[in-house]
Write a structure and sequence with these properties.
52% of the residues lie in helices and 12% in strands. The chain is an alpha+beta fold. The structure holds 5-S-methyl-5-thio-alpha-D-ribofuranose and magnesium ion (MG).
């Protein structure tokens, strides 16, 4: 099938020509609505009297920037691969894939009827009591089981081969997370009240050196298959269930990158509530969630690791208890610290770069928004500058409170 960009009418025709989707939706009228609010793709809800599905298409440009910014639609191939892989490893966290078509850059997924995008829930001040437990189940399993701590050398390299060429989306992250927001760049989008703050940051040598270290890790430390863009817009949930969506940025990168993205987004919500709701109990819940994610992730990651008899890294018979315990302690510290560094980078980029987060950009009063942005930046700067020496999660929570209250 030759690639064409879909619209509502063409989605109808596409579905009529796709037996596995017709089997789900049945004959009869279809209602079709484009609902994509992300930066890259088009997302349709297709509903019949029998069922409802999500149909997502990548177009050959960056949606947020328009047709003048070409972007390979091959990104959908990586999304399909990542969804399929994550569903094998952690099936309860990935929606059912009904149909995938690389030629058309289309994937069709289960419509999550009773779930909302996490960012929206957090903006409304909703608590998700099972979230920390569930997301750490996903993170620990997907990170450990795609790494050299679990796979054989051959399998790890074979898996890497399937994602190594997600070049354009890795480059987007390199540019828009680690580079453009801290220099003069046309793509930047800065609250006028924050222009002088961004100029100051451009001259903060320590911050910029640390950002280069994080960018280097991002580009070169191929620990595990990452989601690659695990912000709260890539999570759909309710009080009982959590789903991870949109892994088109999937690549082999540092263990701490997805964790850092998630922590950054929870903290962006935390700072936004100084103006949004001023609900300090809710903010406390967000901080407890951050703490729980670190604690639970470490326990679950180690548990998977300890149940692995042999891996590319540790040959059977090589490590006695003392060797393993000492190595694991250092290793988990490394993951924690790098997660903190990446969380700082992800918080800072949203303040000045092309794509903000609605938790903050949705605050209409530019002064109130700037107050939130300054708190976010204060936390981000500490994270970026001190990530290599931060001791533990209690220290981290103390740092967040010190910089924000
Ligand atoms: C230029 S695209 C900006 C951002 O949107 C995606 O969600 C990623 O976070 C990317 O960095
Ligand atoms: Mg996305």
């Amino acid at each position: 099938m030759e690639y064409t960009i879909l619209d509502n009418d063409k989605v109808r025709g596409y579905i009529q020509d796709t037996p596995e989707l017709m089997a789900i939706l049945g004959e009869g009228e279809l209602s079709i609505q484009e609902v994509g609010d992300g930066n890259l793709n088009y997302v349709y809800i297709v509903e019949s009297s029998k069922s409802k599905i999500i149909l997502k298409q990548a177009v050959p440009y960056l949606r947020i920037a328009g047709e003048g910014w070409p972007l390979s639609r091959e990104r959908m191939n990586y999304e399909i691969r990542a969804l399929s892989y994550f569903r094998e490893i952690a099936p309860s966290f990935i929606p059912t894939i009904y149909h995938a078509n690389e030629e058309m850059s289309v994937v069709a997924l289960r419509f999550l009827e009773n779930h909302i995008i996490m960012r929206r829930g957090l903006m409304e001040g909703i608590r998700y009591p099972k979230f920390a437990e569930q997301i750490t189940d996903f993170l620990a399993a997907s990170l450990l089981k795609s790494s050299s701590l679990y796979l054989s050398s051959e399998s790890k390299r074979a898996l890497m081969d399937r994602f190594n060429t997600n070049t354009q989306l890795c480059k987007i992250s390199e540019d828009f997370i680690f580079t453009f927001p801290y220099m003069e760049h046309d793509s930047n989008n800065i609250n006028p009240k924050m222009v002088s703050v961004q100029k100051e940051l451009q001259n903060d040598t320590e911050f910029k050196v640390q950002m280069l270290k994080l960018k280097y890790l991002f580009m070169n430390q191929s620990d595990a298959l990452l989601h690659g863009d695990l912000h709260t817009g890539s999570i759909m949930l309710n009080k009982d269930e959590t789903y991870v969506i949109d892994p088109e940025f999937a690549f082999f990168g540092p263990f701490g990158f997805d964790i850092g993205a998630l922590i950054a987004n929870l903290l962006q919500s935390y700072v936004s509530h100084f103006e949004r709701t001023r609900d300090s109990d809710y903010q406390q819940w967000l901080l407890e969630t951050v703490e729980a994610i670190f604690v639970k992730f470490e326990a679950k990651f180690l548990d998977h690791w300890n149940r692995t008899d042999e891996s590319a890294l540790i040959a059977h018979g090589y490590a006695d208890e003392a060797v393993l315990a000492s190595f694991q302690k250092q290793f988990m510290e490394m993951i924690f610290r790098q997660s903190v560094g990446f969380a700082g980078a992800k918080m800072a980029r949203r303040l000045f770069g092309i794509a903000g987060v609605e938790d903050i950009t949705g605050i209409d009063d530019p002064d109130a928004r700037a107050r939130v942005e300054k708190k976010s930046l204060a936390i981000a700067k500490r994270f970026v500058k001190e990530y290599e020496k931060i001791g533990n999660v209690k220290e981290l929570i103390g740092m967040i409170k010190q910089e924000s209250e």
